[in-house]
Amino acid sequence: MNFQKIKLAVYALYLTNLYGFKLKKVKKPLEKKRVRLEYAQTLLKKLKISVEVKNREKLEDGKQYLLLSNHRGIIDPLIVEMALEKTNIFGLWISKKELYNSPFFAVFVRNSGAILLDREKSQMGGFFSDIKAEVKKGNSIFIFPEGTRNKSEASLIEFKEGFRIIALKNRLPILPVFIRTHTDKALGSALGGRKTEETITIEIGDEISYKEKRNIQELYKEMFNI
Q1: Tens of pLDDT along 50-96?
Q2: Average pLDDT, the chain
Q3: d(C-alpha 113, C-alpha 110), whole Å
Q4: In what order do the strands lie in the sheet with 198-204?
Q5: Which of 166, 175, 189, 218 is the most buried (most CB within 10 A)?
Q6: Cα separation values, 22 from 120, 122, 157, 211, Å
Q7: Residues 166, 182, 65, CA angle at the centre, nearest 5°?
Q8: Using the 8-state DSSP alphabet, how is residue 56 labeled?
Q9: Taking residues 17-39, what's their average pLDDT?
Q10: What torsion do the CA atoms of 204, 214, 165, 158 make, to the nearest 10 degrees?
Q11: Angle (nearest 5°) at CA 21 between 18 and 23
């Protein structure tokens, strides 16, 4: 690891925990959104990364969604946050147990607005109850339907079916978004000392009804020409 990577890693760790503690003091959803957005803007600026949002007009401000995004890098939640910057859409991320216990991310994840998914539990009733409670408060739910980071060369890996249960149980319209730029490579380039700014493109898709019978992953691919 070169000096640039060490310096940025230390800064990112400091910033993530700083904002994690800031978020701990915040209770109102839109205030959490403001702090999360400030964190995203600050870290991306340090990494010399800008975000281009295509089809922003498809977002219905204040509406509740089950937002689906592809996932190829750890900065993906920040990119989604930037895409929703000019809206009042606040969502809770479905987060794996590993993130809740991570020495790097735990403080931020636990305080920023997240719902724990513990796949080791034999019963998932508590997980779905937590989601229902948040939806009743007027919040959206954000999820990476692939279930994990896509480390392959393919644009997408297989979607897990859990997101359909969430949409149906809560009657949430599905909002597909696609981060077209390979964010893991963009982050690697930033850590490698890239001098110029890089733009990451995220596209907003067409809303899909929670009643949709067709294969959502196939619709997602068609929508974004994958």
Answers
A1: 999 999 999 999 899 999 999 999 999 999 999 999 999 999 999 98
A2: 93
A3: 7
A4: 49-54, 198-204, 174-179, 66-69, 140-143, 91-96, 114-117
A5: 175
A6: 30, 34, 35, 39
A7: 25
A8: G
A9: 96
A10: -70
A11: 110
Neighbours of 23 (CB within 10 A): 21
Give the Cα separation of 224 and 202 in Å (integer). Answer: 11
Angle separating helix axes 3-24 and 183-191, nearest 10 degrees: 120
Share of the chain above pLDDT 70, in %: 97
In the chain, alpha helices (H)? 3-24, 29-46, 76-83, 97-100, 106-112, 125-136, 162-170, 183-191, 216-223
**Shortest CA distance to 147 belongs to which of 71, 204, 65, 223?**
71
In tens, the pLDDT along 95-106 reads 988 888 888 889
Contact 101, 128 (CB under 8 A): no
Quote the CA–CA distance of 115 and 224 in Å, as a whole number.
28
3-223 has which fold? Glycerol-3-phosphate (1)-acyltransferase (3.40.1130)
105 Cα distance to chain centroid: 14
Domain ranges of the chain: 3-223
d(Cα 107, Cα 99) in Å, to the nearest integer?
9
Can you tell me the distance from the alpha carbon of 218 to that of 81, in angstroms, rounded to the nearest whole number? 25
pLDDT of residue 123: 64
